[in-house]
Amino acid sequence: MTTPTTPFATPGDPFANDDGVFTARKLDTICLFDVDGTIALARQLITPEMDAYLQEIRKKCLIGLVGGSDIVKIAEQIGGTKAIAKYDYVFAENGLVAYKNGQLFFEENIQKHIGEDNLQTFINYCLKYLSEIQLPFKRGTFIEFRNGLINVSPVGRNCTLEERHLFHAYDAEHQIRSTMVKHLQEKFPHLGLVFAIGGEISFDAFPEGWDKRYALKHLEKDNISNIYFFGDKTFKGGNDYEIYNDPRTKGYSVTSPVDTRAQLCELFAP
């Protein structure tokens, strides 16, 4: 009887045996991906090529997604709600909303954690701050309430894709988001909030420990001990920083979906 193999097994493959032969799908190992800037461009659909490649990786180990966005936005980028089942795990809102094999199994809420009065005080301050800054343009939806976090967008989440890119470049020069984060940290130290800049137009505010590391506890409960994480915002203050540097993960910093695939090719045969 021949030993079953996958077309990806090569000598040096971390998921193969010493002879370079992969004999079974490793259920204690997962490749966990950020979404925006990692498997897809910001707020854009995953390409068919990347989608197919990830499904090939899934033949060797578990695959999962972890993003700060809600499940609706993540689903839009991977091909719709049915595509959630194409991943072993999908962690929306940093894992505060968690899916396994396409089924919701966990949900937490920031409102219960910090209280309605504190929540409104924080939101009101953000809106006042945003009303007093001048940008080249502003659109709608400046504050987005999610289960696990508050998303703040100085330019407004209703901006077009072109406007998104323009604001990102403007922000890189003028530090709009990082300056606002500093003000919020000084104003609300008692709330125990952490701020993470992600994507191109916004930043997240969430309770200490509710960053993307929150997703790891779900994996630990399922005895998944080998976690390969890929993300593009791995710098300090970025929303991939904590999970990338966590001792429970093997972190890979990427610059784009193309770079993600290139780095995966170094782990797996092309």
Unreliable segments (pLDDT under 50, ≥5 consecutive)?
A: 1-11
CATH topology of the largest domain: Rossmann fold
Shape: globular
Judged by helices, strands and strand pairing, the structural class is alpha/beta
Helix segment tally: 9
What's the end-to-end separation, in Å? 27 Å
Strand-residue fraction? Answer: 15-25%
Number of strands: 11
Main beta sheet strand tally, sense and closure = 7 strands, mixed
What's the domain count? Answer: 2
Rg: 19 Å
Spatial strand sequence of the major β-sheet: 5-4-3-2-1-10-11
Indicate the mean pLDDT. 91
The helix-strand sequence is: EHEHEEEHHEEHHEEHEHEH
What's the CATH C level of the largest domain? Alpha Beta
Helical content stands at 25-40%
Supply the CATH superfamily name of the largest domain.
HAD superfamily/HAD-like
CATH architecture of the largest domain: 3-Layer(aba) Sandwich
Task: Please give a structural write-up.
Mg(2+) 2 binds at residue 232. One of its GO terms (cellular component) is cytosol. Homodimer. The protein is α/β, with parallel strands linked by helices. The protein has 2 domains: 26-108 and 212-267, 3-Layer(aba) Sandwich (Rossmann fold), CATH 3.40.50.1000; 110-207, 2-Layer Sandwich (Hypothetical Protein, Haloacid Dehalogenase-like Hydrolase, Chain: A, domain 2), CATH 3.30.1240.20. The protein has 9 helices and 11 strands. It has helices at 48-57, 71-78, 110-114, 116-131, 161-174, 176-187, 214-221, 241-245, 257-267; strands at residues 26-33, 61-66, 89-92, 97-100, 103-107, 143-145, 150-152, 193-198, 202-207, 226-231, 249-253. The chain is globular, with a radius of gyration of 19 Å. Residues 1-11 have low confidence and may be disordered.
